[in-house]
Amino acid sequence: MKVALGGTFDPVHDGHRALFERAFELGDVTVGLTSDELAPKTRSENRPIRTYEQRRRALDEELASYAAEYDRAYEIRKLDEPTGIATEPEFDALVVSPETRTGGKRINEIRRERGLDPLELAVVEYVYAEDGEKITSTRIVRGEIDEHGSLTPDRDGRMSAETD
């Protein structure tokens, strides 16, 4: 099975890892990585985003371990539009989060319009931080949590007295 997923992945965190794991369970994986031009347009909040090349290197390191564990092939391709690579005929499945499920449905509409079979949408539930909130790259960049969802000692000064 040929599996697609896409995102900005800046930084990679345990929520992304759950998506990667599901993708590699299903088959060979192609990850669409947002271009420098597209990445800011996909964010709900304006924040700094590392360059495509920086994100690509980090993603490649991450995916290599899953490929080895599951004995699967993978590739990373640049996404210049939100519907990206998944509208291409060779894919069988798309791994999405609850947040991107609507985009997956839109991709299937485009595929139907083009006479292609719809993709199997594999929805991976959110991964939550120790405070019960979703792990997101934005929360990590803000310094609230680390990539595994652990609260950071100095977030908003709330724990600093305990760590002195």
Neighbour order of strands in the largest sheet: 3-2-1-4-5
Q: Report on the biggest sheet.
A: 5 strands, parallel
CATH class of the largest domain reads Alpha Beta
Helix content: 25-40%
* H/E topology pattern: EHEHEEHEHH
Q: Please, what is the CATH homologous superfamily of the largest domain?
A: HUPs
Unreliable segments of 5+ consecutive residues: 157-164
**Based on the structure given, which CATH architecture of the largest domain is correct?**
3-Layer(aba) Sandwich
Mean pLDDT: 92
Number of domains: 2
Task: Determine the CATH topology of the largest domain.
Answer: Rossmann fold
Total helices: the number is 5
What does this structure look like?
- The relative contact order is 0.19.
- Helix 1 packs across helix 2 (52-70).
- The chain has 164 residues and is of the alpha/beta class.
- The chain contains five helices and five strands.
- A five-stranded parallel sheet has the order 3-2-1-4-5, sandwiched between helices.
- It folds into two domains: 2-127, Rossmann fold, CATH 3.40.50; 128-164, no CATH class.
- The radius of gyration is 17 Å and the shape is globular.
